[in-house]
Amino acid sequence: MTEKLAQIHAYLQTQLSEQLSAIKYEFNELTLELPVAHWLAVAEFLRQDERLACHQIIDLCGVDYLTFGDAEWDVTTASRRGFSRAVQSTEADALFEFAQPTSSATLSYPRYAVVVHVLSVQHNFRLRLRTWAENNDLPLIPSLVPIWNAANWFEREAFDLFGILFTGHPDLRRILTDYGFVGHPFRKDFPLIGQVEMFYDPELKRVAYKPVSIEARVLVPRVIR
Amino acid sequence: MPEIRNFTLNFGPAHPAAHGVLRLVLEMDGEVIVRADPHIGLLHRGTEKLAETKPYNQSIGYMDRLDYVSMMCNEHGYVLAIEKLLGITPPERALYIRTLFDEITRILNHLLWIGMHALDIGAMSMFIYAFREREDLMDAYEAVSGTRMHASYYRPGGVYRDLPDAMPQYEASRFCSESEAKRLNENRQGSLLDFLEDFTQRFPSYLAEYENLLTDNRIWKQRLVNIGIVSPERALQLGLTGPMLRGSGIAWDIRKKQAYAVYDQVEFDIPIGTNGDSYDRYLVRMEEMFQSNRIIKQCIAWLRKNPGPVIADDKIAPPKRVAMKQDMEALIHHFKLMTEGYCLPVGEAYAAVEHPKGEFGCYILSDGANKPYRLKIRAPGFTHLAAMDEMARGHMLADVVTIIGTQDIVFGEIDR
């Protein structure tokens, strides 16, 4: 650990020992994990404290932990026609099934997390903060916009892609997906091929949507070694 | 008395000054902007989700297509994050090649920016000049990677291959006469480094030409001075990085402060602005091109003297063809690498580079698989465009074009 990060580590431990659930040091980076109740207080402290002065939010992103650590290599069935691993089919002589994502209702751990990277331009170091939303069906996390204005679009993005709701956000609209888009595409149970495809309907004389007609393919399975 | 209301103006998504597919909904009071609401996502391809379904190396090509005018810098951010998780350091020669190409990329990006920025404001000739110089640098891209833009040249552990000893030559054809081909080939007789050295000697005079055309130009100053002023405090609060932050007078450059590659071994200066307006950001970027030229010269000098390997021998780069023909282990290694890729340890890492536009970073969350569990790309343009509302408020409609230009917007990275 570099000297500077070690000092910050010690300082954070003395100042925030009650709020933080863990401070991790990995790959020369410090990660603070905290319950959502202290999210705003810790962020405010990091920004205001003179020894930290984390004036800049570099990044905020959502993470969906639904399939964390699942590998696709645990094949249960192989087909009569041999072994192919590309196509996920629903037919009777399906090749084999990849593990289907479990639904969040049976999940025993929090599903959605928000990861924030902050930078102190004054003291030249970075910190990572992480909190988990308590409710898997209605993930609520307080908005950081009053503390770092730049969080505005990042939170809109996390809402758009993961469906995480940021309470107190001034303008929580979708940002990257199309107008009228349904669903949150970066969730792990949202298929890569999407759910609808667009086509030109000559009878209606306009563009319309229909369910996707292509097959989901996995070209290289996930393996964990 | 009639009721006077603000009206809404739809700028883009197919407006030539929108730099791609920006739809900007402007609330106007007469000709003054009251509120600017950028609608983005028209180029959203889901790069991050696609990367989650592919082995690590297959996503390098996607990185080129993020900010499609500074391709190799995007790759650099991605491979740095992977290298951090794997704990490998590329050979020094690879680090110098990366520094060299990062700076070539910076010049490429800034040339496109100055061309477009000036074109938007009405200086047509800048565009032609800038593209003349870009041609030489794209040839350098082509010489090392085979493509002029989407190079996929950086790999975890180093770069794909060493710099070529010969430059491709022009051939006489129906479109290029014998004498013309000869003229074009004049500086292509030696290696890539010779070609680049020739460029670095010519380039400062080109920069002086641009400065002659623009810096004291009355129209240019009328359009840029005091437009889109950002104070240092607001610049930090709005998450601006790169030339946008330096234009506001904050001396922050990742190349200096958190050096990666070999930026701690080359000499260069960081220009900063004083007023935080568009004109200062113009001056900052012009000076950055000059400094990049300095770095390129130093890299060329080092690379000439120090031959060596360009990719780490850490089982994440494919083995040599010759080895595969003779060694069973190498063949198996190649097969596994191409069909399955390599696994990263469980953990998370964020690596950032000083991209021409600002801080470009990749956050990789790995669960130990051969694909990232979550890849988040931190694109500088995203936060810059988010600051559009604040920067444009109170300005005239024509100034929006200046502000888009000064932010150096490219939609590939914003929409990802």
From TrEMBL, chain A:
It is a peripheral membrane protein. Coiled coil: none annotated. One of its GO terms (molecular function) is NADH dehydrogenase (quinone) (non-electrogenic) activity. The gene is nuoC. It is an enzyme of class 7 (translocase). Keywords: Cell membrane, Membrane, NAD, Quinone, Translocase, Transport, Ubiquinone. Pfam families: Complex1_30kDa. It comes from Thiothrix eikelboomii. It comes from the Bacteria. Belongs to the complex I 30 kDa subunit family. The keyword Transmembrane does not apply. Residues 34-195 form the NADH:ubiquinone oxidoreductase 30kDa subunit domain. This is NADH-quinone oxidoreductase subunit C. One of its GO terms (cellular component) is plasma membrane. NDH-1 shuttles electrons from NADH, via FMN and iron-sulfur (Fe-S) centers, to quinones in the respiratory chain. The immediate electron acceptor for the enzyme in this species is believed to be ubiquinone. Couples the redox reaction to proton translocation (for every two electrons transferred, four hydrogen ions are translocated across the cytoplasmic membrane), and thus conserves the redox energy in a proton gradient. It catalyses: a quinone + NADH + 5 H(+)(in) = a quinol + NAD(+) + 4 H(+)(out). Its EC number is 7.1.1.-. PANTHER family: NADH DEHYDROGENASE [UBIQUINONE] IRON-SULFUR PROTEIN 3, MITOCHONDRIAL, NADH DEHYDROGENASE UBIQUINONE IRON-SULFUR PROTEIN 3. It is found in: Cell membrane. NDH-1 is composed of 14 different subunits. Subunits NuoB, C, D, E, F, and G constitute the peripheral sector of the complex.
UniProtKB/TrEMBL annotation, chain B:
One of its GO terms (molecular function) is NADH dehydrogenase (quinone) (non-electrogenic) activity. It is an enzyme of class 7 (translocase). InterPro entries: NADH_Q_OxRdtase_suD, NADH_UbQ_OxRdtase_49kDa_CS, NDH1_su_D/H, NiFe-Hase_large. One of its GO terms (cellular component) is plasma membrane. It comes from the Bacteria. It is a peripheral membrane protein. Residues 120-416 form the NADH-quinone oxidoreductase subunit D domain. Keywords: Cell membrane, Membrane, NAD, Quinone, Translocase, Transport, Ubiquinone. Its EC number is 7.1.1.-. It is found in: Cell membrane. SUPFAM superfamilies: HydB/Nqo4-like. NDH-1 is composed of 14 different subunits. Subunits NuoB, C, D, E, F, and G constitute the peripheral sector of the complex. Belongs to the complex I 49 kDa subunit family. NDH-1 shuttles electrons from NADH, via FMN and iron-sulfur (Fe-S) centers, to quinones in the respiratory chain. The immediate electron acceptor for the enzyme in this species is believed to be ubiquinone. Couples the redox reaction to proton translocation (for every two electrons transferred, four hydrogen ions are translocated across the cytoplasmic membrane), and thus conserves the redox energy in a proton gradient. This is NADH-quinone oxidoreductase subunit D. It comes from Thiothrix eikelboomii.
